[in-house]
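Dear colleagues,

I hope this message finds you well. In preparation for our joint manuscript, I am sending the Pantothenate synthetase (Metabacillus arenae) sequence together with its predicted structure, so that both groups work from identical material. I would be grateful if you could confirm receipt.
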Amino acid sequence: MKTISTIKEIQNVIKEIKSTKKKIGFVPTMGFLHDGHLSLMEQASRENDCVIVSIFVNPLQFGQNEDFDSYPRDIERDQFLAEKAGVHYLFVPSVTEMYPSKPSIEVKAKDRVDVLCGKSRPGHFDGVVTILTKLFHIIQPDRAYFGKKDAQQVAVVEGLINDLHFPVTLVPVPTIRETDGLAKSSRNVKLSDKERNQAPRIYHSLLQAKSMIKKGERSVGKIISVIKNDILENTDGNIDYVEILSYPELKKLNELKGTIIVAVAVHFVNARLIDNITLELN
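The corresponding structure tokens are as follows:
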């Protein structure tokens, strides 16, 4: 595996790969890799000739009071894990490499962003689609891999690829979980021991909702109430949102039908955790 830090060098590598007709699988990350990231890389390795992973903590995705400076970083560990997962090239640009000057063009996410995480993080998905537009142009992947844990991001990326006609196949990969059900996340390291013991309750509440729906419950309000009560009674976290929406459109529902997402975000003292399930209904 080779680590590259400049756009010019990675573009030269891409040109060489493309000349041999090899397929490129791409996994964009913000680093501090965990098993969720590695599952994306391993799937990309199975399905492509060459795997490229980017590590870039994108400042445009962080709001004024969010954790850009304290976001966990460990490049040496990330290099070791990425190579072990079958990655061929690790692209690790600096902020000045990706944003060398004030942009003359703005990329904005207009749809699928006023709910879930986007509602409380204005501008966050503008940052996501901006950096992905840059990375898709630089890497020119055949397939791009994203975890379903951030289902809103997957929906927004689908819109980006379709609207701008990127010749990229989006590959959503199931959420990887700890043995107790907690979705793996770089932010889990910020949980206290007590919070770490409580955090699996988030997924437990989603499973309760799934069971209710499977048994025929169709009241959005009742299902949301059960989820909220479970989390509030069994954790010290503060609920950011509990929502049930169509997927991937992320529209509010008067009745539960088609593909739906049940999504939750919970704030602990130093970490904000998200989780979701999607269901297919008649």
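For the figure legend, we might mention the following. The CA atoms of residues 22 and 47 lie 11 Å apart. The chain has a mean pLDDT of 95.

With kind regards,
E.M.
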